[in-house]
Amino acid sequence: MIIIMKNEATRVQIDAILGRIAELGLKPLCMPGTEKVVLGALGDERVLAGLRLENHPQVERVIPILSPYKLASRELYPSETVIQVGTHQIGTPRFTVIAGPCAVESEAQLMAAARHISAGGAVFLRGGAFKPRSSPYSFQGMGEEGLRLLAKARETYGTAVVTEVLSTEEVALVAGYADVLQVGARNMQNFRLLREVGRSGRPVLLKRGMSASISELLMSAEYILSEGNPDVILCERGIKTFETAYRNTLDLTALPILKQKTHLPVIVDPSHAAGHRDYIIPLAKAALACGADGVIVEVHPDPAAALSDGQQSLDLPMFDEMMRQLRRLAKVEGRIL
Amino acid sequence: MIIIMKNEATRVQIDAILGRIAELGLKPLCMPGTEKVVLGALGDERVLAGLRLENHPQVERVIPILSPYKLASRELYPSETVIQVGTHQIGTPRFTVIAGPCAVESEAQLMAAARHISAGGAVFLRGGAFKPRSSPYSFQGMGEEGLRLLAKARETYGTAVVTEVLSTEEVALVAGYADVLQVGARNMQNFRLLREVGRSGRPVLLKRGMSASISELLMSAEYILSEGNPDVILCERGIKTFETAYRNTLDLTALPILKQKTHLPVIVDPSHAAGHRDYIIPLAKAALACGADGVIVEVHPDPAAALSDGQQSLDLPMFDEMMRQLRRLAKVEGRIL
Amino acid sequence: MIIIMKNEATRVQIDAILGRIAELGLKPLCMPGTEKVVLGALGDERVLAGLRLENHPQVERVIPILSPYKLASRELYPSETVIQVGTHQIGTPRFTVIAGPCAVESEAQLMAAARHISAGGAVFLRGGAFKPRSSPYSFQGMGEEGLRLLAKARETYGTAVVTEVLSTEEVALVAGYADVLQVGARNMQNFRLLREVGRSGRPVLLKRGMSASISELLMSAEYILSEGNPDVILCERGIKTFETAYRNTLDLTALPILKQKTHLPVIVDPSHAAGHRDYIIPLAKAALACGADGVIVEVHPDPAAALSDGQQSLDLPMFDEMMRQLRRLAKVEGRIL
Amino acid sequence: MIIIMKNEATRVQIDAILGRIAELGLKPLCMPGTEKVVLGALGDERVLAGLRLENHPQVERVIPILSPYKLASRELYPSETVIQVGTHQIGTPRFTVIAGPCAVESEAQLMAAARHISAGGAVFLRGGAFKPRSSPYSFQGMGEEGLRLLAKARETYGTAVVTEVLSTEEVALVAGYADVLQVGARNMQNFRLLREVGRSGRPVLLKRGMSASISELLMSAEYILSEGNPDVILCERGIKTFETAYRNTLDLTALPILKQKTHLPVIVDPSHAAGHRDYIIPLAKAALACGADGVIVEVHPDPAAALSDGQQSLDLPMFDEMMRQLRRLAKVEGRIL
């Protein structure tokens, strides 16, 4: 840890800080510069959190050297995490396609989607039974009945179920039906929920918040991992920026950075980022080319009739076209699809 | 509602949409322009949500004319909401100062803060018992013991208690001790929690998310109001931007806009926005001059020893200086403090 | 154009506006809603700019239906623009690779780069002779001597020259040496410079500003086009966001949107966006997969010694690796490289 | 300067860097941590720029300790800069009000504005003769005729002239008429223009770019100062964010930060930030309360007829109301108005 002192810090104040660093078992260092004094603390700097040096009135800035997460870090755990979901895996050369409607709306709708996507080669079915909606007047999902339909689709078509859980009380219920629990972007820093899915025994698909930094995403993953659940799939889904030509800015640069910093699999959600079906296929392809382990896309048998997010849902022929183009790319990129 | 059709929309498709608008009891309008056809739907356009016209493949854009929130809207409820908290009120010419430590750390710390701020004229004590922390390794709060200390401070100094609630299960517990329930920025779109505090019978201090638009903040307030709780205090606390010289960008323009759009009281949190005590006093003054109904600030008897957010906590003399300067301003601004 | 009136607008005020619309030869329309009155103006709404209805005290909002640019618009000019640069073309199925050092530093450096990239299949050489630097104390470029070296590289290796022009006075000088004039991100709204390059007779590579919307980029292209220069290449190079793990957020969603809205070729600069060489190859591949017509990348024979932007420059083996991977992708994407 | 090495850096590579630091006359320091090696360089670290250590393949991060600007820094020049403009001053306890139309449109319009604002106590008249417009089809200003009218207003009403200069060729022309040269937000990093106004002999009003950081603003000021012109007035005018309820987010936190970092006067432009006249008065008051040295506001005798930015122009009674409210505040804030 590097500690930059204010210009007006006195020798006595500096020595006091150096003393506290030494007491905690780290090696203190003092670098008196021409204008400012800089201190160093060598060793496991996480021990220094208790000192809260950033609060000290004579400290200008504290710069950590090590990353604040541990279990999520590739530096400490270098090899790739592979997540087993039933007979399927995420985080291998096989490119994962998770597809399905935004919300489960009816048996007919869900079964039509599941039949089509599984025939097309997607083995993960997405579909919301509990929906987070910015307006209290919008459709809020079918609830447990939606979960039952997802389970029925699994029985019929063999598709593993990925579905969102909105609050701690529902974790057990949703985990009873789902194969993968999704934590949505708006809940990325709902720390109680993170702990609860960390104790659920189910793999977790953790979406990056619309204004969360890459480092904050990894800290949220750390919450889940630290409860003993090693199966976290990260998902980039667009961040909030000034651009209004689409919904959110898909941050594909996050892919090579996450791949460098963590061993967890990373997938991309182009549907929520773009907010319009016209841009999904090129963005899904870009995600594959950029190193994603998979994509999660919204597919609806009749987007014009969708109860939510219809504008960004692929219809069935567009899904087929996406798969065709992704397969072509996967081949030259050494991925299986 | 205005509906802009794509260039390629046919007469038949357009007529079908006009027919659906008429069926729902609104007056349809067709404006064939030189390049594009524009449709209108006159009446309570919220009825049209069911049509989901934005999903229609031949619709380019849907532009609502009315705001999506109703109970929060000043257009429908023009007079100011005044919130009664024990013998105190929020939303009157009296300028509200909510002060206290980021987290309740000990009886000594909390009592020292409560004694000082109440002597200085603040009647609301803030302090977190349940803390949302981005790292699972950081101090997470004292829990119920912290709530008991807040209640003790109320008995001793008469300060009303404002404290954060993190999840639905804790709402009843926290409501048993607190006078005002705070929903933090990270939970602004935790819709389950919004509903639950809407049923708690307690006033709610709702913080704007770091990346939430003003309109989204009002939609989240609508969730609480729609559960029958009319007592919502909005709080601007900074948004995420590219600037790194401070923590978040305090959005004071939100004040006159919120005052125009809603009847709910609006306060400002300069501490979390700035992230450093040096900038709190000027920003608190700017908030008052800009029309805020109050401020919420972090005050700690010994910031250098704070377990969280010490860098942004005012010490006791700085709190006194802030109050002195705010009083001077309040006088010329027609506010009581 | 749609005009939403404030609630308090009177019948007389509304009629006055409708009258002015009619006087200008457009068809006026009045839609009295339940809460607000909405007006329409059918015809070439650009004629209405003179009315400045958005200034009217009783007007709440003005919503244009047509795009503000014309020459750049695909609606008016549907077929792809192909730009001829000597014997080379940009905007065809051939994928354009523009490569070279950030700044021309010496003959040895430039020639080594030009030799390598041209041997590797890139026919456009980039290199700055006039450098925009945020600090006045940083290296500002070699000036005309740099231009002479670029021309020499062209003679020797046949590489077309792409180089930045910083101000109107230098346009003639730079156009005397360069094949393509680059307008940098910081100058995207330097309107004098846009007009001047519009009169230069040279194709222009126009970079999107770090905080420019897609629509503003097209308006800046319109400045160049409206001076009679049809040869504009658009370049996405990252936008400013809150994320600090890299330099700027590369906005690849801009690609399918630009392809929908304009007939101009679009390339991507992953080097300036990422700010670090480790992320260039995946991002260049993502750009190709997402529909870009080319990439512009920084390549330096010895990045550790570069006078500017060394951190983001590919070294020569990395350039070869990028070309190898791009070629593989190009093949399945129907592009020639 | 602090240099954090990558985990894989070898002893030999580290020693080489330490040797290069020592050769340049700085004191090198090596801190071998548990996971990473950290180096320090004590002395005037600006000397190290030539080493470009951030380019080194084994360097993870370089953290400067000193600010990159010198002449603009309060650390090196602690006392406030006071700028003399004719008989007026900027940067004293007197609160500066710069007012006038966005664009000079006619003699009648400008004279009406100048008469009114000077009667109301504003001694600086703003008005654009050369206008930067995002569309080539918008009104571009009256040019030199506009400058002549501004000079005429000065003769008649004694108001000093503040007007924008768009390009290097116009600097001499504009400086011949204006008292203060304005560099607009879009030109904040037009480095050629910065140098030219630095040689103009006129005070410069430098607006922060919509996406420029506070540090970049100070670097742009440094360009002007380094040409020998000490008279730079900084202007905060809103930054680009995701919020769409107004035009740009006014960043008032920049005020106390700029006051801490620099000795230059700082004013605020609420008109361009808000984009709507309804929000100007509260924001101007907030600016004063937050420590601004002045404001620059748009005032038009007939906003509904304005050729540009009419929506955000105060009309004459609103200007009077703003002055009345600012005066009331100025009194308690120790400012003269």
Instruction: Determine the mean pLDDT of chain A.
Output: 92
List low-confidence stretches of chain A.
none
Can you count the beta strands of chain A? 14
Radius of gyration from the alpha-carbon trace of chain A, in angstroms: 23 Å
Number of helices of chain A: 10
| Main pleated-sheet profile of chain A | 8 strands, parallel, barrel
Of all protein chain pairs, which has the greatest interface, and how many residues does each chain bring to it?
A: A-B, 46 and 46 residues
Oligomer: homotetramer
Helical amount of chain A: 25-40%
H/E element sequence of chain A: EHEEEEEEHEHEHEHEHEHEHHEH
Shape of chain A: elongated
What class, by secondary structure content of chain A?
A: alpha/beta
Beta-strand proportion of chain A: 15-25%
Which strand order spans the largest sheet of chain A, edge to edge or round the barrel? 7-8-9-10-11-12-13-14
Rounded to the nearest angstrom, the distance between the terminal CA atoms of chain A is 45 Å
Features:
337 residues; alpha/beta; 4-stranded antiparallel β-sheet; homotetramer; 10 helices; 8-stranded parallel barrel
List the helices and strands and how they pair.
Four copies of one chain form a homotetramer.
Chain A: E1 2-5, H1 11-23, E2 27-32, E3 37-42, E4 59-63, E5 83-85, E6 88-90, E7 96-100, H2 107-119, E8 124-126, H3 144-157, E9 160-164, H4 171-177, E10 180-183, H5 191-198, E11 204-207, H6 214-225, E12 232-236, H7 254-261, E13 266-268, H8 270-274, H9 280-289, E14 294-298, H10 316-332
Parallel strand pairs in A: 7-8, 7-14, 8-9, 9-10, 10-11, 11-12, 12-13, 13-14
Antiparallel strand pairs in A: 1-3, 1-4, 2-3, 5-6
Helix pairs in contact in A: 2-3, 5-6, 9-10
